[in-house]
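hey so u asked for the seq, here:
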Amino acid sequence: MEIRLAVAEDKAKILKYDCHIHHNKVGECIYNGLVDVLCDSSNIVGVLRWNLFWQSIPFLDLLFIDEAYRGQGWGKKMMAQWEDSMKVMGYPYVMLSTQEDETAKYFYEKLGYRRIGAFLPPEQDADEIMYLNELK
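ran it, structure tokens below
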């Protein structure tokens, strides 16, 4: 298993897991170095996509691990590698959000993320919880 920066040729495989933004935006994120992938041989089985909140704080947009690979520590490893790269870039904090009704909140809280607020987006039934983690 390998965690690496996505390349243009990965786009179709990434779109299998990342349908939250327009496919052209996925290509733009790959081009800008904002997507990491988890690979089992040549198969992409996980995606981590991020951006900058307020153009200054790294914000995790998506972490998705294929069901067959969940519970094996790969999400934690992808998060640790992303956080380490943010530290190297000089960022003191990272942020993310998840829906109140999703179990992902327990995963992020276990990693040390703390709730800093919530809001209810249009056409969403549950609050979106905002999280912050200080990179030490």
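DSSP finds four helices and seven strands in the chain. The helical segments are 11-15, 23-31, 74-88, 104-110.
lmk if thats what u needed
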